[in-house]
Design brief:
The chain has eight helices and seven strands; from the N terminus they run E-H-E-H-E-H-E-H-E-E-H-E-H-H-H. The protein has 212 residues and is α/β, with parallel strands linked by helices. The chain has a seven-stranded mixed β-sheet with strand order 3-2-1-4-6-5-7, sandwiched between helices. Helix 1 runs parallel beside helix 2 and helix 1 packs antiparallel against helix 8. The radius of gyration is 16 Å and the shape is globular. The N and C termini lie far apart (39 Å).
């Protein structure tokens, strides 16, 4: 059972504004790209992943993520996260209607391929399923079986919204790396302690983070 992952990435200049207390305007785009690079690289190393489609219009991100092996889908809707994910899933299924599709956050720099494989294998048991983030408020992964629409509802309180939409919440232990998205300085410190990929490690080395 293999999946195509759809990874959304906004223009880097506008990404990760909540890291303003940790990184200045010049460094945040580098961090956002590094998070995405490590997320995509780990996803492509996962045995349950057939391929990764990144939805973005950022030229730098296009070059760097394509070099890792990701397919690029232009963010033609340009109407926010959920529109980008729906567009990416539709683009994937335009070529492979029976594809298993999962939306994955682009800010999972500690992602482990083996843990991602466990999550996707569990998701395959249901028509639609999702994994809550470490804060148990948001969502880091939303999966849809063949013939099922993704119906993304990411954003504020997305855990509750995905549950209300009928998606099954996956109750899995030992998959912290798939839950650990990074929005704030505290999130980044926790991810660094968990162990991040090489791109994030290099970018974070340029920061002065208490406790790092």
């Amino acid at each position: 059972m293999q999946w195509t992952l759809v990874v959304p990435l906004k223009p880097l200049a506008r990404a990760k504004s909540r890291l303003a207390d940790t990184a200045d305007d010049g460094l945040r785009p580098d961090l956002a790209l590094a998070f995405a690079q490590d997320t995509v690289a780990a996803a492509l190393a996962c045995p349950a992943v057939r391929d990764v489609a990144v939805v973005t219009d950022d030229g730098r991100a296009v070059r760097e993520l394509a070099a890792l092996g990701a397919a690029i889908v232009a963010d033609e809707p340009a109407s926010g996260l959920n529109a980008a994910l729906a567009h990416g899933a539709a683009a994937v299924r335009a070529g492979r209607p029976a594809a298993r599709v999962a939306a994955l956050n682009a800010d999972l720099p500690a992602l482990r391929p083996g843990e991602l494989s466990r999550v996707l294998d569990a998701a395959g048991e249901f028509p639609r399923a999702f994994l809550a983030d470490a804060a148990a408020i948001g969502t880091t992964l939303l999966a849809a079986a063949p013939g099922r629409e993704l119906r993304p509802a990411f954003g504020v309180d997305s855990r509750a919204r995905h549950r209300a939409s009928g998606a099954v919440e996956l109750a899995l232990a030992g998959v912290d790396s798939v839950r650990r998205d990074v929005d704030t300085g505290d999130d980044l410190r926790t991810a660094l302690a968990l162990g991040v990929g090489p791109h994030t490690a290099a970018a974070a080395a340029r920061l002065l983070i208490p406790g790092q």
